[in-house]
Design a protein that fits this description.
The chain is of the alpha/beta class. The chain folds into 2 domains: 4-335, TIM Barrel (Alpha-Beta Barrel); 348-421, Golgi alpha-mannosidase II (Immunoglobulin-like). It is 28% helix and 25% strand.
Length: 422
């Protein structure tokens, strides 16, 4: 069974590649099957992971030798030996302002009357210009430039496939032109049928996400992080995307505010956000430090924060339980039908997940109050789950289900999972 439970081993925290292997057993023990590595190309003068200077070299800051390819491949091989897959993130949209590529191929950059265009990113519906990044001309109409630039991206992609990575995450994929990106993905898959692509759609509109879902990417990220558990748009997006692409939800990522920061170190919030994000879609992702309640936003960290250690609490055992549920019950490791179950108590969130072909059904219930108990009431769970043979497979506080009226007091942030299969 193909599972995608992703742990983001953020390089500024993980340190030298030669020491990454020390985390492999730990990550696997948490129940994750995939490790995601952010870009570690040679960086520009500002030492930003997302300001690549040279796509053909790893940053010496992460190396213990001068053979970066060997060190990186050795790590990937060690992951494979332990049964873990590896995601590496590629950047096609821009380079640092002092990139070697600018010297070698100035024609590949957007030039407006002699001024090189600075790269902009979309954040909260606003475009913010990065003064130390230059935008590459992926959208050019000039065939010679388009052919050479996209051939270059093809060769860079193949470099990392040859280093053993299993997934390529394409940074700001929604910002790239569809046709050459579709061509790149299809040609790579023709040569390497096992390869999977993740389209980075952070900041994308829903129409952008739909477009990406149709050009060959295998996974997209949902907007679960920004959902209020009430607005219908999350379910609407799910139904429009689920048949085209697999979806990955996350409670936080390397460039979002931490849940532990937002909720002032509340362990109940941490548990609830992980549980629901892991169970609602096929994929789930957390960055390093989520399990210990880190409040530091990762992309605000400096290059030399290799000794990062912060523990507000530790929910590792809880994450293991959720990941085991996700692994054992196929319903939670695929895209399928989900339905909102309305509650009179607005502090209770409940949804039904189902696969009718296998007669497999589940209800996931969460207490959105992280400080007090809240009552849940479901009038006829035998009807909702289409069976009187129901198991409570909750990560904590399991109970025997023998009455059709389900009325319980949920602890702060508690999740209950009721499951049936005919």
């Amino acid at each position: 069974m193909s599972l995608v439970k992703i742990y983001n081993l953020y390089p500024l925290i993980a340190g030298k590649i030669s020491s990454w292997h020390e985390k492999i057993d730990y990550i696997k023990d948490l129940g994750f099957d995939t490790i995601y590595i952010n870009p570690i190309f040679e960086m520009g003068y500002n030492k930003n992971l997302y300001a690549p200077k040279n796509f053909l070299k790893f940053s010496q800051d992460f190396l213990s030798s001068f053979d970066g390819d060997k060190e990186f491949k050795n790590f990937v091989d060690q992951c494979h030996e332990k049964g873990l897959k590896v995601i590496y993130e590629l950047i096609f949209t821009h380079t640092s302002i002092d990139s070697d590529l600018l010297t070698e191929h100035p024609e590949w950059y957007i030039n407006n009357n002699g001024a090189l265009k600075k790269y902009s990113i979309k954040t909260e519906n606003k475009w913010i210009e990065w003064g130390d990044l230059l935008e590459l001309n992926n959208h050019t109409d000039k065939d010679s430039i388009k052919t050479n630039l996209w051939s270059y991206w093809h060769s860079i992609t193949k470099n990392f496939i040859n280093l053993g990575v299993d997934y390529i995450k394409i940074h700001s994929a929604f910002y790239l032109p569809q046709e050459p990106l579709k061509s790149l993905i299809s040609s790579i898959k023709l040569e390497y049928p096992h390869m999977k692509f993740i389209g980075d759609n952070l900041g994308a509109s829903f129409s952008d996400m739909l477009d990406l879902s149709r050009i060959g990417v295998d996974y997209l990220f949902t907007s679960f992080k920004w959902w209020d558990f009430k607005s219908p748009w999350f379910f609407e997006q799910h139904y429009k995307l689920k048949d085209n692409v697999n979806l990955i939800s996350f409670p936080e990522s390397y460039d979002t505010e931490r849940i532990a920061k937002i909720y002032d170190g509340n362990i109940n919030a941490q548990k609830m956000f992980y549980g629901v994000s892991a169970l609602i879609n096929k994929g789930v992702l957390i960055p390093i430090g989520f399990e210990t309640g880190s409040q530091k936003k990762l992309n605000d960290m400096s290059l030399y924060d290799f000794d990062f250690e912060e523990e507000e609490f530790n929910i590792s055992d809880y994450i293991k339980k959720i990941n085991n549920i996700k692994c054992y019950y196929k319903l939670f490791s695929e895209e399928n039908d989900i339905y909102y179950l309305s509650q009179s108590n607005d502090k209770i969130f409940a949804f039904k997940k189902m696969n009718k072909e296998r007669n497999e059904f589940a209800i996931v219930i969460a207490n959105l109050n992280f400080y007090s108990n809240e009552k849940v009431l479901l009038n006829d769970i035998f009807y909702v789950l289409e069976s009187s043979d129901i198991k409570d497979i909750s990560p904590e506080n399991q109970e025997i289900i023998d009455e059709k009226i389900y009325e319980k007091l949920l602890l702060p942030g508690e999740i209950r999972i009721l499951y049936s299969k005919k």
